[in-house]
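Protein modeling request. Please complete all fields; requests missing the sequence field cannot be processed.
Requester role: graduate student
Desired output: 3D structure, C-alpha cell encoding
Chains: 1
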Amino acid sequence: MMPRRLWRRNGAGGAGIAAGAPRMAAGISRPEPIRHRTLMAMRWVALAGQASAAIAAWVLGARFPLAVVLAVIAAAAVVNLSSGWRRHRASPDEALTQLMLDTVQTGVLLSLSGGTGNPFALFVLAPLAIGAGVLPRPRLLALAGVTGGMILAMTVLATPLAFSADPLVRPVTAIGVGHVLALAIGGAFIASSSYRVTSELAATRDALAATQLGLAREQRLQHLGGVVAAAAHEMGTPLATIKLVASELADELADQLADRPDLAEDLSLLRRSADRCRDILRSMGAAGKEDLHLHTAPLASVLDEAAAPHRGRGPEIRIADTTDGMIVARDAGLIHALRNLIQNAVDFAATRVEVQARRDRGLVTVSIHDDGPGYPPHLLDRLGEPFLTTRRGGSDSSSEGYEGMGLGLFIGRTLLERSGARVEFANDGGAVARVTWPEAALAATDRAALGRNPVIAD
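Delivered output (458 residues):
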C-alpha cells in the first residue's frame, strides 16, 4: 500500500479459504524476529564508534596494542560485509549468533584496552540489551552466559590501560572525560537501538494481529460450512418423509379431494415446499462440504482458487502448472497470501498476469509476473516491511493510483515465509513475485486427492 505496488487491503479475502487456517493463525501469535539488516546497521554504527574511540584515545596519549585493536575492528567489518544487506528477518538462532559475535568482539576490544577499567566497558552490555527484546528466553540466557564470560575475561585477562610519558591530556582528566562520554554515548546508543528494535517489532505485531483476525474469521466461516453440510444431511430424511406422507395422503383422499379443492391445494403446496427445502439444503450442503473435505488439492487447483476473485477484472490471468499434478495442502494462509500476490499483479498489469508453477531439484516455485510498469526501484529492498511511508503510485504520473502502508504485502510475505517459503521481488519486463518452497514443506502429508474411479471390465 505504498508506491505503485502495495496493496489496498490487509489481503484479498473472500470465501473459499480452506482448512489449514488454525495452523497458520496459531503460528502468527509467536514473536516476529528482528530484521537482518537492522542488526547489520547497528553493527556498522558500533564499529564506526569503536574505530573513532580507539584512534582518539591513542592521539590523547593512551597506550594499548592499537594495531591489534584495529585488526579486530576490521575483522568484524569483513564479517558484516560478508553477511550482505539481506532483506529477510533473522531467525532466533541467526540473531543469537550475530549478537554473540558482537559481544565477543566488543569484549576482546575492551580486554585489549584496559578491560573493566576502560570507561567504555558498559558497551559489552549493548548486545544483551538488544537481545532482551528479540530473543526467546533460552537463547537470551545463552547470550547472557557469553556476556558474563566476556566480563570475566575483561576482569582477569585484560591488558592494563597505560599512557605515554607526555600525553596531551592528564590521565585522570582523560579517564574522567571518557566516563562522561561513555555514559552519554552508551546511553544514546543502547536507547536508540532498543527503540528501533521495539518499534519495529511493535509494527510487526500490529500487522500480524490483523492477519490473525482475518484468518480467524475465515476459520469460523469454514466451521459454519461444516455445520451447514451436517444440517443438510440430517434434515434430508425428515423432508423426504414429509413429502412421502403428503403424497400418500393425496392418493388415499383422492375421492374427497375432488370436493375439497382447498385441501388438494394445501397438499400440493406441502410437497412443493418440501422440494424447495431439499434444493436449498442440497446447495448449502455442497458448499459446506467443499470447505469441509478438500484439505488437499492439486497445486494448479489451489492457484486457480487464489486467482478466481480477480478474473474478469480486466487483465487476463494465465496459469501454467508443470509440477505434474503435485498435491499440496489446501491451506487458508497459503491461498490468502497467493490471492493477494495475484491481486497486486492484476491491479497494475496492462493486459495479462502469468502465474507459473514448476518443480525442480526438490524445490517448488510459483512465479507471478505481470506486464505492468514494475516495482519502484527505490522500494525493492523494503518490500515486505509493514507501515512504509505513504506515497501515491500508479502506472503513469497522471493516474490517480492509490495509497497505503504496505501492510498487505507484509502480511502475504509473512504467511508465505511461515509456510517455509522464500519470497523474492524483482523487475523483469514488469513486476515479478517469486515464491519458492522446499518440496517437503509444500507437499500434502495427510492424504492425496482422489484419483479417477477405476473402470471395471464386464
